[in-house]
Amino acid sequence: MVFLWQNTGTGHLLSTEHNLDPDAWVEKMCCKPQEISTNATTARRPFGEDQHRKLLKIPKILDDYNQYMGSVNIADQL
Questions:
Q1: What's the distance, CA 13 to chain centroid?
Q2: Range of the domain at 38
Q3: Which among 10, 45, 68, 77 would be 20 to 30 A from 35, CA to CA?
Q4: Rounded distance between C-alpha atoms, residue 72 and residue 78, angstroms
């Protein structure tokens, strides 16, 4: 699967582990990006004016990447 995710920046992901399941979303507590981030206007919109943290749905592939991104480096070191 090839995946593009737009948040404070554009993320490109390529996976042989994930598929295009539309239900593959998880809820995560996310922090409001700073105003100086590249896409601050778009990325800050779901938070409103007074919320600094919010429970948002993110794609499972992105959650897996964030959770396990160090595993490849550790395997390579071993």
A1: 10
A2: 2-77
A3: 68
A4: 10
Place of tokens 């105003």: 35
Assess contact for 62 and 18: CB atoms under 8 A. Answer: no
Phi, psi (deg, nearest 5) at residue 12:
-110, 130
SS (H, E, C) the chain: CEEEEECCCEEEEECCCCCCCCCCEEEEEEECCCCCCCCHHHHHHHHCCCCCEEEEEEEHHHHHHHHHCCHHHHHHHC
Span 32-46, average pLDDT: 74
| Confidence at residue 4, expressed as pLDDT on a 0 to 100 scale | 82
